[in-house]
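Researcher: I've been going back and forth with a colleague about how Amidate substrates transporter protein might be arranged in three dimensions. Neither of us has a model we trust, so I'd like an independent prediction. The organism is Mycolicibacterium neworleansense, in case that matters for your notes. Sequence below.
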Amino acid sequence: MGNVGLLLVGVALFVNGLVSVGLVSGRGAAPINLFVGAAQVVLPTLILVQSNGDPGIVNATWPSYLFGFTYLWFGFIQIFEIDPRGFGWYSTFVAAIAAYYAIKSVGADPVFAVIWATWAIMWTLFFVLLGLGVAKVGRLDLGHFTGWFLILLGIPTCTVSAILLLNGIWPTSVAAGSVALVVLLAATALSVVLSRRSAGGEDVVDVAPAGVPEGSVVGSVPQPA
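Model: Here is an independent structure prediction for Amidate substrates transporter protein. You can compare it with whatever you and your colleague have in mind.
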C-alpha cells in the first residue's frame, strides 16, 4: 500500500510544478493535493494498524505522514489562501528527514539515496520560497526553477519508482545509483534553462510558487494573508 501512495505522489508533484510555472491555477491543483494527501495519511495508517508493532514496518512507514501532511496543507493553502510561511518552515523538517534517509540509504540502496536527496532539495526549495519568501537568487527565478524541478523529477522519483517496486524490479547497484545521480544533475541543469525561458527574463513574475494561490503572491513572493 505504501508503494500505491508513492505512485500517486508523483502526479501531485507534477501538477504543483505546473502551478509554479503558471500553466495551472492554484485552486485547480487543490483537489489532487487533498486526494493524495489523504491517501498518504490513510494508507500508512492501515499498514501500521496491521503491523503488530513491528519496528521495521513502523520505521519504513512513518515518513509517509510527512508527505501526506505536505499535500493536505498545500490543498488548504490553495483553497483558503492560508499564510504559507508556516508550511515553509514545516518543509525544513521534511527536508531534514529526507536528507537523513538519503545518507542512511547510500550503502544499501544508492538509487533511493538519490531519490531521498531529490526530495530533500524539493522541500528545501519550499522552505526558501515559502518560509523565507526568497523569490530570486541572482537572475534565477526560484518559483519557476522549483516548478520545472518538480515537473521533471516528480514522476520519475515517485510514480516510476513505485511501478518498479510493485513489479519487483528495483535496481540497487552502484551503477544504477550513478545513473540516478546523473539524471538528478541533468534535470537540475535543465530546470535552470527552462526557468529562464518560462520566466521570460522579467524582474517580476506574478506566478504562485509551488501551488500557493495567486491572491497571496506578489512578484512570486508569498505574502501574509
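Researcher: What would you highlight for our discussion?
Model: I'd start with this: The mean pLDDT is 88. After that, consider the following. Helices lie at 2-20, 26-49, 55-61, 63-80, 85-105, 110-131, 142-166, 174-199.
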